């Protein structure tokens, strides 16, 4: 997302995600997903986790499969770019993104993901970003990420296709890829994780700034997210956040979004007394990788029950990273955390 010299304060804007900004909180409630002991069923959510004071939650029907999750509720960063976006004045770029977005809306889960013929400028953008990031991976990324990258065999002259990485995930962790047009509503995105489905963009960032993007794009998804999702312990950890979201109130969805932010996007793990990155917002940003290793930052153990810090994506690099001792530990920790949401629903 940033080079060591340019775009100094942009450090993984792609990780803006999923998590969304405060402006997305105005979004209307939408259906989520439900999983019950003994299999999927249609239920009505009453509450999630500990009761919330003065929180009047409207009952929601929870769909029973990934087919019932709406992947079209885009809260931002689709083809309608803001004026500060690198591609705002490039009509050809915006038209291409609009076309790619239309493909995502028409794809039914389980169907093959359309293969795109990436243009020369898109291939060059991929090559430049991959080349810069690979310089830091050996010393900054965790072992699980490095092992996965070896298996995925990223090449500078070939932009990976979502269908190909989808098949790798199916063989390793059982996760699936579902294309999405842009920044998906947090509830819908997190609910998808409960069914081991990762909603991924398919368009490329603007070629004028290959090391920076203010939104999720193919480079962020492929380099940042896909490798770690091949690890079964990590994939289980991610799924637990999704399972908790099934029964979360709208207010709790915001907390879960922060838990996602400080693990899946900006999480770090201890490896032989060294801090190594596993979060996609770090792994897909040269500047964030360097800051994580050498910058002025705070490290703290992950506690999903605690109030999480404000998500920071417009005022420089992360000021605080939450640390796991292992992915086995992270999986068990978030399994215990999600259990309170599931138990509360069934006891209600």
UniProtKB/TrEMBL annotation:
<feature type="binding site">
    <location>
        <position position="265"/>
    </location>
    <ligand>
        <name>Fe cation</name>
    </ligand>
</feature>
<feature type="domain" description="Biopterin-dependent aromatic amino acid hydroxylase family profile">
    <location>
        <begin position="47"/>
        <end position="348"/>
    </location>
</feature>
<keyword id="KW-0503">Monooxygenase</keyword>
<feature type="region of interest" description="Disordered">
    <location>
        <begin position="1"/>
        <end position="41"/>
    </location>
</feature>
<feature type="binding site">
    <location>
        <position position="225"/>
    </location>
    <ligand>
        <name>Fe cation</name>
    </ligand>
</feature>
<protein>
    <recommendedName>
        <fullName>phenylalanine 4-monooxygenase</fullName>
        <ecNumber>1.14.16.1</ecNumber>
    </recommendedName>
</protein>
<dbReference type="InterPro" id="IPR019774">
    <property type="entry name" value="Aromatic-AA_hydroxylase_C"/>
</dbReference>
<dbReference type="InterPro" id="IPR018301">
    <property type="entry name" value="ArAA_hydroxylase_Fe/CU_BS"/>
</dbReference>
<feature type="compositionally biased region" description="Low complexity">
    <location>
        <begin position="30"/>
        <end position="41"/>
    </location>
</feature>
<dbReference type="InterPro" id="IPR036329">
    <property type="entry name" value="Aro-AA_hydroxylase_C_sf"/>
</dbReference>
<keyword id="KW-0560">Oxidoreductase</keyword>
<keyword id="KW-0479">Metal-binding</keyword>
<comment type="similarity">
    <text>Belongs to the biopterin-dependent aromatic amino acid hydroxylase family.</text>
</comment>
<dbReference type="Pfam" id="PF00351">
    <property type="entry name" value="Biopterin_H"/>
</dbReference>
<dbReference type="InterPro" id="IPR001273">
    <property type="entry name" value="ArAA_hydroxylase"/>
</dbReference>
<dbReference type="GO" id="GO:0005506">
    <property type="term" value="F:iron ion binding"/>
</dbReference>
<dbReference type="GO" id="GO:0004505">
    <property type="term" value="F:phenylalanine 4-monooxygenase activity"/>
</dbReference>
<feature type="binding site">
    <location>
        <position position="220"/>
    </location>
    <ligand>
        <name>Fe cation</name>
    </ligand>
</feature>
<keyword id="KW-0408">Iron</keyword>
<dbReference type="InterPro" id="IPR036951">
    <property type="entry name" value="ArAA_hydroxylase_sf"/>
</dbReference>
């Amino acid at each position: 997302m940033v080079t060591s010299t340019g775009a100094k304060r942009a450090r993984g804007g792609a990780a803006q995600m999923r998590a969304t900004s405060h402006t997305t909180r105005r979004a209307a409630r939408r259906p989520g997903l439900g999983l019950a002991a003994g299999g999927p069923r249609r239920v009505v959510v009453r509450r999630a986790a500990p009761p919330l004071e003065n929180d009047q939650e409207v009952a929601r029907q929870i769909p029973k499969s990934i087919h019932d999750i709406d992947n079209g509720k885009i809260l931002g960063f689709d083809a309608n770019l803001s004026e500060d976006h690198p591609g705002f004045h490039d009509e050809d770029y915006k038209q291409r993104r609009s076309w790619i977005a239309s493909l995502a809306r028409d794809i039914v889960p389980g169907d093959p993901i359309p293969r795109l013929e990436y243009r020369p400028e898109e291939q060059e953008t991929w090559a430049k970003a991959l080349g810069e990031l690979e310089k830091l991976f050996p010393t900054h990324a965790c072992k699980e990420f490095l092992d996965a990258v070896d298996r995925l065999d990223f090449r500078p002259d070939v932009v990976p296709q979502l269908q190909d990485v989808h098949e790798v995930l199916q063989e390793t962790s059982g996760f699936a890829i579902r294309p999405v047009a842009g920044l998906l509503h947090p509830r819908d995105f997190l609910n998808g994780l409960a069914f081991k489905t990762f909603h991924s963009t398919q368009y490329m960032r603007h070629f004028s700034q290959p090391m920076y993007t203010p939104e999720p794009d193919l480079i962020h998804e492929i380099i940042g997210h896909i490798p770690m999702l091949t690890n079964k312990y990590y994939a289980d950890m991610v799924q637990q956040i999704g399972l908790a979201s099934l029964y979360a109130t709208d207010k709790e969805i915001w907390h879960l979004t922060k838990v996602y932010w400080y693990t899946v996007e900006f999480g770090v793990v201890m490896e032989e007394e060294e801090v190594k990155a596993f979060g996609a917002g770090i792994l897909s940003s040269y500047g964030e990788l360097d800051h994580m290793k050498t910058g002025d930052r705070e490290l703290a153990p992950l506690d999903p029950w605690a109030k999480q810090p404000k998500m920071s994506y417009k005022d420089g690099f992360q000021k605080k990273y939450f640390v796991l001792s292992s992915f086995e530990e992270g999986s068990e920790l978030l399994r215990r955390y999600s259990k309170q949401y599931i138990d509360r629903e069934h006891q209600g």
